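Reminder to self: tokens first, then the designed residues, so the page reads top to bottom the way the pipeline ran.
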């Protein structure tokens, strides 16, 4: 049995700083992050807020160094001293459910990134190719295209499909079981200690909203995926010779706790999901919802019409010959396009929030077979106008930030030991959206 991550040193100061910069990406202007920075900085909190508002991040380098030293000390002392997680209920409009979201303090988030980066070798080896949720590069679009490819290239083994869901997956994961799974595959005592402490920080199961939890859940469910892909079979007896193994499910896809099985027989799929349900309950301590459903997949008859049922998963409807957008999502996109086009006809500007929504929706349209919709609602024209609106807004914001940087420099001057050209990013003509190179080393990105 191979074990992983034996050469990872989570107490190494450069490793910790790299993890902090990965966590910091896209979060530098958040209020909780700025408060966190103020606790580790000699600068007043107000000055840090004003510097961040004009994208002058001269304070980041020294603060990250202090945070890294504090984190290193906690790891070496085996005392994380994590603040308590706060929870709030949030409505999910896609599923129509209320979810309990955990809100972690920044120091807890930093340790999450350290644990994930430390376990990345194991995660990449264990999490399977068709586990699609929360993994970079494995989103809804890739999953929908994989299902379409199976339907088109393997019609014999995709006559029927079954969809099932794990009941309360995140909060139902037993701490003892998931700790044992990590202990089985990790050969790094320090990293294993950190992982166990992060798991114990959750009141029950794993926390929705945690960076570490999404990887840990995918890793935990990878055992169920391997079982579904490799152990769901029956033995067909023969009069002479050994029996022949026959697969119950020919294609398997997990979208976090949503399970899709495709096969050639209804009876085989029913047997397979019952076997998988027993495995989840006995080995992983998880339970399938009893309301799983099975249908005949979409197919095109001799008359050229569609029969059966499309696969409704990951925000798309996957037919035998094309991908369509889910109806509820399609209504939102159509409504946005109609309103934007009406404003264009009346000679009015598209609001920034509407323009951003349109640019986001065009990605969903571009990854589905929506040519007629794009033509009917002038998607290219609306997209161009939305892009111009966003561009103008960003230029105005950039000018405002430049003006505020000048005011900031006049008010506070430079930091001790720094020259004017190094203290304020606008003076050197740096990219206003990035941290200074000497404070944000290029090799700190994930390779």
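Designed residues (447 positions):
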């Amino acid at each position: 049995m191979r074990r992983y991550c034996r050469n990872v040193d989570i107490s190494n100061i450069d490793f910790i700083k790299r993890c902090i910069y990965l966590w910091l990406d896209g979060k530098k202007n958040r209020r909780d992050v700025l408060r966190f920075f103020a606790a580790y900085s000699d600068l007043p909190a107000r000055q840090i807020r004003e510097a961040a508002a004009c994208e002058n991040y001269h304070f980041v380098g020294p603060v990250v160094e202090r945070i890294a030293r504090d984190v290193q000390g906690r790891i070496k002392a085996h005392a994380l001293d994590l603040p308590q997680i706060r929870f709030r209920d949030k409505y999910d409009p896609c599923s129509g459910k209320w979810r309990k979201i955990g809100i972690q303090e920044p120091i807890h988030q930093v340790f999450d990134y350290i644990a994930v980066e430390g376990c990345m070798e194991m995660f990449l080896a264990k999490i399977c190719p068709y586990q699609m949720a929360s993994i970079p590069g494995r989103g809804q679009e890739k999953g929908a295209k994989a299902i379409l490819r199976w339907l088109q290239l393997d019609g014999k083994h995709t006559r029927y499909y079954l969809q099932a869901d794990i009941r309360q997956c995140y909060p139902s994961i037993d701490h003892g079981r998931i700790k044992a799974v990590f202990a089985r595959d990790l050969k790094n005592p320090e990293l294993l200690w950190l992982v166990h402490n992060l798991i114990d920080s959750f009141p029950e199961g794993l926390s929705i909203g945690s960076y570490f939890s999404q990887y840990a859940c995918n890793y935990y469910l990878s055992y169920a995926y391997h079982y579904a892909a490799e152990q769901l079979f029956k033995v067909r007896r023969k009069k002479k010779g050994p029996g022949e193994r026959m697969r119950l499910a020919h294609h398997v896809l997990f979208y976090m706790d949503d399970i899709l099985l495709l096969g050639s027989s209804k009876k085989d799929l029913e047997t397979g999901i019952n076997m998988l349900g027993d495995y989840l309950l006995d080995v992983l301590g998880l339970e399938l919802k009893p309301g799983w459903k099975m249908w005949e997949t979409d197919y095109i008859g001799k008359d050229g019409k569609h029969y059966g049922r499309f696969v409704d998963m990951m925000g798309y409807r996957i037919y035998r010959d094309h991908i369509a957008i889910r109806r509820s999502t399609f209504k939102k996109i159509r409504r946005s396009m109609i309103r934007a086009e009406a404003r264009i006809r009346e000679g009015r500007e598209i609001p920034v929030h509407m323009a951003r929504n349109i640019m986001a929706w065009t990605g969903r349209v571009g990854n589905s077979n929506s040519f007629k919709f794009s033509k009917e609602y002038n998607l290219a024209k609306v997209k161009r106008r939305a892009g111009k609106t966003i561009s103008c807004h960003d230029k105005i914001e950039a000018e405002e930030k430049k003006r505020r940087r000048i005011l900031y420099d006049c008010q506070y001057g430079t930091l001790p030991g720094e020259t004017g050209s190094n203290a304020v990013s606008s003076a050197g003509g740096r990219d206003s959206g990035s941290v200074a190179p000497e404070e944000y080393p290029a090799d700190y990105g994930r390779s």
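The longest strand covers residues 86-92.
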